[in-house]
Design a protein that fits this description.
This protein has about 500 residues and is an alpha+beta fold. Helices cover about 35% and strands about 25% of the residues. It contains 15 helices and 18 strands. The strands form four sheets. An eight-stranded mixed beta sheet has the order 6-10-11-18-17-16-15-14, with helices on both faces. A five-stranded mixed barrel has the order 1-2-3-5-4. It is elongated and about 90 Å long.
Amino acid sequence: MRDFTDQELIRREKADKLREAGMDPFGHRFDRTAWSKEIKDKYENVEHDAFENISDEFTVAGRIMFIRKMGKASFFTIQDKMGKIQIYISINDVGEEMYELFKTADIGDIVGVRGRVMKTRTGEVTLKCLEYTHLVKSLKPLPEKFHGLTDIEERYRRRYVDLIMNEESKKIAFTRPKIIRSIQKFMDNRGFTEVETPVLSTLLTGAAARPFETHHNAQDLDMYLRIALELPLKRLLVGGMEAVYEIGRVFRNEGMDPRHNPEFTMMEAYLAYSDLEGMMEMTESMFKTIAKEVFGKYTFNWYGNEIDLSKPFKRISMVDSIKEKTGIDFKKISSVDEALSLAKEHDITVEKHQENIGHIINLFFEKYVEETLIQPTFLYGHPVEISPLTKRNPEDPRFVDRFELFIGGKEFCNAYTELNDPIDQLERFEEQLKEKELGNDEANDIDMDFIEALEYGMPPAGGIGYGIDRMCMLFTEVDSIRDVILFPLMKKK
């Protein structure tokens, strides 16, 4: 049996009285003619006295956020998805019966109003209510404060209340789709085709990550939720689609922190006959386009840094960035023992499956460089050992044609000149299996169907994967991924 507060009991009694009066407490269709913001924008600069000659009427609907009852006339504010507007209601305008109905209203109720536009003496655009319609009785009172630090977990658990109470949360919720539409428009204008690929897979492929496991009962198959979008999209290049992208959810069985959620949104794109350079140009252009089209600016404050997207993005190789910070030139190191010795000297822990030069280079990068890359930086030249799906650099096969974009010390995308040699690809998969045997539970399986697809011939190509949530964090200037995902995964209470 649920325990109700006094306020909740009173609201339930009011709902019962509405039923007794022949009204549905939870309403029916209501046709509105305008949004709050449209009305306010249209009349904001009209002088108070000019309203004597204005008889424009509008019908609005929304949630009551404020009430000031004053006998035979009152003010209240309703909120729709575009914002808030003040309503003036008087017994002289709506009649005694309708005014009595209004007097039973609580903050949180959803109502409809037909009214004539006016302006108060304080200059606020207001609707003078001519017809008041009860739509939905709110059985729970809204919290007085819902966006302080003490309520942060509740904000994410009860996002619906957060959206009612917190203008910034609502703004982010409406901005994220605009960012995604801008990306889609950008990609479509470049000749890409948006596609959909399977979420369920029998193999662990496409990225280094632990999966969520599930089971298909009808086929008696153990399956994974996808950790990446890559291999199905590359199959489409083999099939001749040439320029494809997908924006979709991926699932990684990992911890949660301000930058990571176990299910998140990625975009992966693959372009036949392109390469690493093509992906760099496309990425820089896309970020600048979103900044200009959606926000009308190029500077964003993120994690306490002013990020400037207007300038050309910096480019630096992984080994050169390490050399800048430590003086160590890994291009000159060919002995695993020497690399392990350097790691020990610098207090870097090396796991069993990481005992090779490539992994140690990456560990040095993560310790000394990653968090220092504040302004947009393309980091390229990754070791082959940490890039199993990438084409080797023709000038130095120890490294691959890959880059990551870093902004504010955080990775935003990962791009490759794609590996299309089926023989080399199979050897890389086999190396991954050896790592799995040494304890790397993020190593990839061998996807023989993908190898067979490559044997038919995949064109030379550039490919890239973007973290959409992190992009939204940057552009909306928030520090937690939970602020840009409407329903983030939460720990059990």
